[in-house]
Amino acid sequence: MATQKTTLIPAQATHPGILIKDEIDATQDLNQRTLAKELGVLPSFLNEIIKGKRPITADIAILLEKALGISADYWMKFQSQYEIDKARVKQKNIKKLRNIEIWSIIKDYVPVRYFKKHNYLIDELETDIKAVKKIYDVETVDDLITLFSKNKFAYYRKSEKLKIDDKNMFAWSSLAQYEAKKQQANTFNFDNLAQLRINLNNIFYDNSDTINRVQTLMNQFGIKMLFIDKLEKTPIDGFSFWSDRNPVIALTLRHNRIDNFAFTVMHEIGHIDLHLRNDRDKKFMDLTKKQSIEKCEKEADSYAQESLISSIIWQDILDNHLPLNDDKIIALGNKHRINPAILLGRVCYEIDYYGMKTVIDKKLK
Description:
Elements: H1 17-26, H2 32-39, H3 43-50, H4 58-68, H5 72-106, H6 112-117, H7 125-136, H8 141-151, H9 166-182, H10 193-206, H11 210-220, E1 224-227, E2 236-243, E3 246-251, H12 258-274, E4 284-287, H13 295-308, H14 311-320, H15 326-336, H16 340-351
Parallel strand pairs: 1-3
Antiparallel strand pairs: 2-3, 2-4
């Protein structure tokens, strides 16, 4: 198969008149007036050719061949290349202006600084426009605008308590879906989710190299797991959806806490198990401090709670171990192989123990 050659377009087309000037400058006792006389043309006519204001015709090419010893074919090829280059430069400039117009629109819908910081954009207009279209999976800027309007309220609920930047939310969710397509994972099977939750709880209990171990485990079980840095006013904890044949969980790691991380992971697995099982077109974006008033969110919350601390263990705590303190929580955590910070988080949430002083380490490690 023949290799397609790349056409190099000069910044500026070079008129063959420049070669006439070079020959005059390099030849002793030759100037424009003398050469014009030899060619049988007015000096002003020759000067216009040298300045690129007139083309070299076939007749002039023959005269130059006789006067300068450079073949007429060469002059005609030079002139022809000039015309081609001039046309290509014109088209290039038209395209450049069009790209500037496109970019001015894109900036209203895309967090350019964020994408530059994370090396998705390189400050080259044509390349960056292609990158944006690829990330957002659109063909045109009109498609980008339409998709933005369509998805503005698709994945998350508005809340008066949360300051949300629609452009940044759109960017984050689009980037998560773009990155998910690039990631590989094993074959997914719903029947393996029970074992996955057991393995995850063991990792949470150890809380050592937790993020890497969880991501590796999830991929082994066929779930693509992504970590996408949050943008300003994007209070996202997790995002779950399908990518090809695999479910995906994307997280921001907004909070560097083992209890928050563990709950969010289990919450998103809940969406996969309960809600994405029979509908692969759904997407669930979960926001921090949301009020779980929707049925699916309540179900995912309950799924996460039961996965981390079974209802039997929790009822035993309520019946036999109140009031709680650090020593009791640590002892119960070790007894049931539940990270004490996860147990403490549940206690604070369920029994409103937020004012309880504690030395339990909540840091995600």
